Amino acid sequence: MAAAELKQPSLPGSVDPRRASTEGLPAGLRGACLDAYAAIWTATLTAAFVVAVAWQILARPVHELLGLRLTPITNPPPDIERVMALAAHNVPIAAWPLLLGVMGAHRNPRARRIADCLVLACMSGNVLPVGAALGAYGAALLPYIPQLPLEWAGLALGAGSWMVQRRRVVTAREGLVWFALIAVALVAAATLETFGVPHR
To answer: What does pLDDT average to over the chain?
Structure first.
C-alpha cells in the first residue's frame, strides 16, 4: 500500500530463502501483507480523525453522502445466500491484484508504476469512505462493522500480493494459495457481517 516501503527488488523468479515459509505459504507473504494491513488501518483511522476533527465542516456532507441508517431494521435476516453474495462481491475487489503479475505488469518500470497507482486507487476507494463514516458516525457505527478487521485482511492480502509480484515472479501454486487465503478471509468477513450485526 501507499505507506508501506517496498523492499529492494530481487532477480525475477528468485526466492530469498530467509523469506521462504516453512509452512508452504508464498515467500514474502507475511511481511508484505502486514505492511499493507498497517497502511490500510492507518488510512482508515486518518480519514476518521480528519472527519471527526473537522466535524462542523465535514460531518454533514459525509452524512448526506453516505446516508447510513444505523438501525437493526435496515439489515435483512441472516442467511447463507447473503453470505455468499457478500463474498462474491468482495473477493474480486480484493483479489484482482493477483492478475497484475499474470499480465506482466512487473516487467517494466512504467507498468509497475501504473499498477501501483491502480492498487492504491482501489484500496483508497474502499478504505477512505469507511474511515470517513467512522469519523462522522462515531461509536454508533461499530456494531455494524464487526467484519472490518477481516475485510481489511482480505484487502491487505490482495495488495500484498502485488507488493511481492513487483519484486519477483509468483508461481501458479503461490497464486492459488494467495487467492484461497483472500477467499477464506472474506467469506469469514461476510459471515460475520451477516450474522454478527444487529438485524430485524
So the answer is: 84
Domain range list for the chain: 29-195
Q: Rounded to whole angstroms, how far apart are CA atoms 190 and 193?
A: 5
What are the φ and ψ backbone dihedral angles of 139, each rounded to 5 degrees? -65, -20
Cell 465535514: give the residue.
58
Say how many CA atoms lie within 13 Å of 132 toward its Cβ.
18
Rounded CA separation 56/52 (Å): 9
- In the chain, % of residues over pLDDT 70: 87
pLDDT, tens digit, for every residue of 149-176?
A: 999 999 999 999 999 999 888 888 999 9
Q: State whether residue 180 is helix, strand or coil.
A: helix
Which residues touch 23 (CB under 8 Å, ≥6 apart)?
none
- Count CB atoms within 10 A of the CB of residue 140: 10
Does residue 146 contact residue 197 with C-beta atoms inside 8 Å? Answer: yes
C-alpha–C-alpha distance, residues 19 and 99, integer Å = 22
Rounded distance between C-alpha atoms, residue 147 and residue 161, angstroms: 21
